[in-house]
Each structure stands twice: as structure tokens, then as C-alpha cells.
Amino acid sequence: MSPTAANQTTEEAFQDTIQKLAALKPIGHSRRQTDVITGFDPEWAAKIPEATKERFQKYGIDVSQGYPYIPVNEKVPKFVDEAYAVRNDEYPFVERGKNADPEKKLLFDAAEDIIELTPYIGTEIVGLQLAELTDQQKDELALLIAERVVVFFRDQDLSPQKQLELGHYWGQVEVHPQAARVGPEFDGLTVMWHEYARGRAAAKTLFKSKTSSFHSDLSHEHQTPGITHLHLDAIPDIGADTLWSSTYGAYDKLSPALQQFLDGKTAIYRSMHQYLDRENPLKGPKYIEREHPIIRTHPATGWKYLYVNRSFTVKIVGLLPAESDLILNYLFDVIETNRDLQVRWKWDNTLGSVKHKKDDKEKNVYRGVSALWDNRVSNHSVAFSHEALIGRHGTRVTSLADTGYFDPNSKSQREALGLSLD
Ligand SMILES: [Fe+2]
Question: Which residue range or ranges hold the TauD/TfdA-like domain (predicted)?
Fold first, then answer.
């Protein structure tokens, strides 16, 4: 029998309060407080874009109970120690690109065309279906993503189940305890539906607010995201492009003196989501914070890259706050403002080599577009184009990679490729 308030000891009353707090809705995202809806969302299933509906019907995704699925309250961590425990132990990771054929013959020979979108970032592969790749081709693709930062495939017939399977091949699939997903049986298949996210947000995103800064996903994780695969199955006619910036390139933009200063230093990476401190739950929000090298070496390419981003990196260890802010802001600027490090992708299924003519009998067959990027070596940002976000829907699978390391003997991309550093 639980004690009544009258005979509770202070410790019991304290524990009681903590349990009551834990039963409340999660504090949530630091910038996007949301309404309390858990389980299947009954209201939004009717608003799923037509193309998404076709994909889901074709592959047996049942949305009759509602869509998307929000993890139920009891399964969401409230205390910061619970949040740390979600993924704190090292998970064996195989860098699939490491032993792949450097010439990627099986992948390239099977493709109709390989289009390099800029000299050092962004490649489009034409005429290949991701769902049909062999394991060797998946290894070669992992190496290509590691080298080119982001790789695109248009005109894909890709089931949500297959997308998840690909993610498992490239690493431990990240299951976000709070994120909207396709259904309770689809852990790790995250719904990317801005219209829904905006519709649910308690504080509406206004046009005048800064809505998407360059960032790398989830860099507070112990094993940070490697290959991330966003498949848009419903695409607006125009707008809502995504930009990626190479952080191999950002490292090469620094002076040798600054590179030397940063080599071997570490920084603190802080989660977006907020939690309670079990010892002092009323003290205010707590975050997951982890330390990683600022300059890291990619296991597949062996190239050094700059591992910072404006959303998660909060402090360089060992520096005064003012020194840390100054240097971090400079590094963010290098990533965000050098256009030669960037590629801007237009989510459009009618350009390039896609051969769907108006009178094509297959014109009604669903096709989507995939982008696969290496989160370790990039920052990304969506060009919000507010009206164009209507009708944009996709599913995302993130494969977690290594814990991150710095090899002092590794080279930068330009050094390794024998390019001028002047
Ligand atoms: Fe992101």
C-alpha cells in the first residue's frame, strides 16, 4: 500500500513527486513544443499525400488506425539518465565502404549514368534501383557516399520495408524515442512530413523566423550517424530543396595553423531534446551531452573532416566560453558560407534522365527520390520555401556509424587527392 501524504517521509514524498513528473508528457524538443498526441494520429491519416498513399498501399502499410505513429508516453524517456541509456553501449560497427572496390565497378557498370553535380560533393546515379543492389554494390555505394558526401537516386520504386533493410545493412538503425514513425512495427523508419510537424507544433513556425540552419543530425549520439537515407515519396512541384556542405572541404579551407590548433581537440555535443534531472527535477531542462574529437578521420576514405555543426556543438573543451564561441562560430561560417563546398538538390522526378513521358503507360506507377548522405562529413539544411512544404512527405532511415576518432597521421581530402592547398 502506498503511504498517504500524512505519513510520507521526505524521501518518499520526493520520490512520489518524481514519479508524478515522469508520468507527464516529455519536455520535448527545445525549439518545437508539441501537442500531446501519442499512438496513431487519427486526424492526419486523411491528409497523406496521394503518392505516399500509393506507395503505402502497394507495400501493405496499414494506416486505417491513423498516421503517423507517435511513440506512447510511457516509452519516451523523461529523465536524462533514461535518455543516455537508450544508446550508451558500443554497438559493433562495420564500415561497409572500407573494403569495397575503390573503382566501384559493379555499381558503376550497372548504372546508366553517373552524374557528378559539383567537383567534390554530390553524385547522381541514374538507372539503378536501390532495392535491387547486391551486397557488393551496397559496399561500393557506401564508399561512394563517403567520398562524395551525398548520392542521389531518382525514380525509385522503394518500399518502406526495403529502405529499413538497407539501413540495417549499413549500421545500427537509429530509433528515435520521440520521432513520428510509420507504425509501431517500423522502428527506425522516421516520418519526414513538415506539414504534419508544423501542424502539430504548439508554436507555429512563422515565415520570418529562421527555420532550418545547417546541421548534422544527432551528433550528441555515442555512435554518430553515418549513412542517412531520406526517401521523398511525395514531392512538391517546386521548392523545398535540400543543401549539403562538405566538412572534408571545410577542414581544407582552414589555415595550417588553425588545423594544427584543432587537431586532437574535442568538443561537447548537446541534444536538442530536453529531459529532467532525477536528483533535482525542478532545476530545469537537462540535455544529453557527449564529447567527440572536432577533427575526425573517416574510416573508409582515411580523410580528415571537421565535425562541428551549429545545432549540436556547444563548446570546445579546454577553451574559455568566449574563445570557444568565437572559434566555433568561425567554423560554422566556413561550412555554411563557402558555396564551393555545397550542393543544392532539387527534389524533382521530371528532370535529368527520368523518362516518364505523359503518355507512358507506366506514368501512374509510383516513383520517389532518394538522397543518401554521410552525416559525419556533412552539414545539411532545407531551403524551407514554406508553401512548397505542403505535399512533401518522406521516410528517413539513419544508420549509426563509429564513435569517431582522430588519426594524427591521416590526410585531408585535398592532400590525399594531391590537389593544390594554395
Ligand atoms: Fe537533419
Answer: 115-347
